[in-house]
Amino acid sequence: MRFAVETWDPAYGSADQQGVLARLDPGERTPLFLLGGRQTRYSWYLRLDGARTHPLACIVRCETQAVGELVDVVARANDVTAALLRFASEPHKDARAPQNLYPIAGLENRLRHLLGDTRIAERALRAASRVAEATSAEQDDPVEIA
Question: In total, how many domains does the chain have?
């Protein structure tokens, strides 16, 4: 079940509904709204605590599957909202703060560590590319048939 969405389309709802986003205080969320498409889901916007550099700063869109009773979905939205406030990052630790949550930043760091030095990977990719180009060039050479 997915809850937080890092990127979002502010086109959901009317201009009046979008104006609500600019007026949200830290920790406040919008009412839930239903989204269709491949999978029906409930969504809402939330303002995290942080510097308001523009009207939509610190706004994240959350969503969850439209499964179960509405009262349970609302309770889930409230729980997720409270949890996200606790995990919002700080600007001195992450340039993407507060939207890049600490657990996500930790996962990114761990994956970078497991992948190793990017220069080694880039070197290996370039070498493989040269081999593939050479092999392709050899196969493209015309062959004389006597």
Answer: 1
